[in-house]
Structure formats: C-alpha cells, structure tokens
Amino acid sequence: MARILIAEPHPDIRTLLELVVRRLGHDPVVGGGEDFDLSDVDAAVIEPGEGVGLPIARRLRALGRPVVFTSIFPADEDALELEPAAYLVKPFALHKLESALAAALPAPIEV
Question: Does residue 98 register a pLDDT over 90?
Fold first, then answer.
C-alpha cells in the first residue's frame, strides 16, 4: 500500500480523489503547504494551478517521487518540466486516474 498525497483545493474533487486512491488500496494523505513533510509520501495527485501545487511537485520530484497532475487547464511548460507520470485535464474518467497511479507506482513485491 502506497501513501498518496492529494493536493487539490476543491473539497468535493479532493473527496472524490481520496475515494479513488482508497479503492486502489492505497492510503490518501491530504495536505499541502510548502512546509509539509513529504518524506513518507510515495506519490501524489496534484492540481498544479493551486498556489502550492507546483512547489510541492518540485519537492516530490527532487525526492524521486512520481506526480500525477489533474487540472482544468492544459499542461504548461512549468508542469511538463517536472515530467509528471500523467497530466489529466478535468473532467476525466476516473479509470484514467487509476491507470495513471498504477503506472506511476512500482509493482508490489510478492513474497
């Protein structure tokens, strides 16, 4: 189970993203802010247009963590420079987010 940070400013969308993450068997972590501890986050779903979205994504990418962007705006150069695992333009089918997270996270190790 991975810990997935959700940085989404709209409460209704954030709740939907949390449900998708839980349905995939992962632990959603809601947070943000430039001082948020990212050391135990495995990946993130981020609205890059949110004030702290891109700074958080930069910190995660510096740690080698994948990010999935979800936005009402098309991708811009600043977002694409971070090499997101996916850039989904809202509204999008939820299976696209599921697929993006599955592709972004390493496969579980079977014992």
Answer: yes
Q: What is the largest CA-CA distance in the chain?
A: 42
Output the average pLDDT for the chain: 92
Instruction: Give the domain 3-102 fold.
Output: Rossmann fold (3.40.50)
User: What is the reported pTM?
Assistant: 0.92
SS3 track for the chain: CCEEEEECCCHHHHHHHHHHHHHCCCEEEECCCCCCCCCCCCEEEECCCCCCHHHHHHHHHHCCCCEEEEECCCCCHHHHCCCCCEEEECCCCHHHHHHHHHHHCCCCCCC
Cβ burial, residue 58 (10 Å; 0-12/13-18/19+): middle
